[in-house]
Here is the input.
Amino acid sequence: MAIVQITPQNIVNTGLIPAYTAVSAAGDDFYMKNNEKTFLEVINAGAVSLTVTFTAVGACEQGSLHDLVVTLAAGVTRKIGMFERFRFNQNSGTYIGSVKINFSVSASVTYGAFTN
Here is the structure.
């Protein structure tokens, strides 16, 4: 299992030509820097549904600790986020200030992270 650091692309007034990256392998751990203005765009061009899991480290506003799990059907593109720091940002280890992400499949899946 590999660890992949995702660097968000800055959205600016003059525009951004977005870049997308293929998911390396199902089971890899991805970490995305987060400032509560960051979102992840996931493109599932594959033939099967995909689950993207965002690991929670703090309780949600309702008081329970649970991951955010988003399912994308085949052929679907979705923008996911913004992510509350208190709930999703890693607070220890190498990736402090980042959201931990896992993709259930990798075939024909690409992503891009964006922030302003």
About this structure: The longest strand covers residues 109-115. The mean pLDDT is 95. Helices lie at 85-88. Residues 85-88 form the longest helix (4 residues).
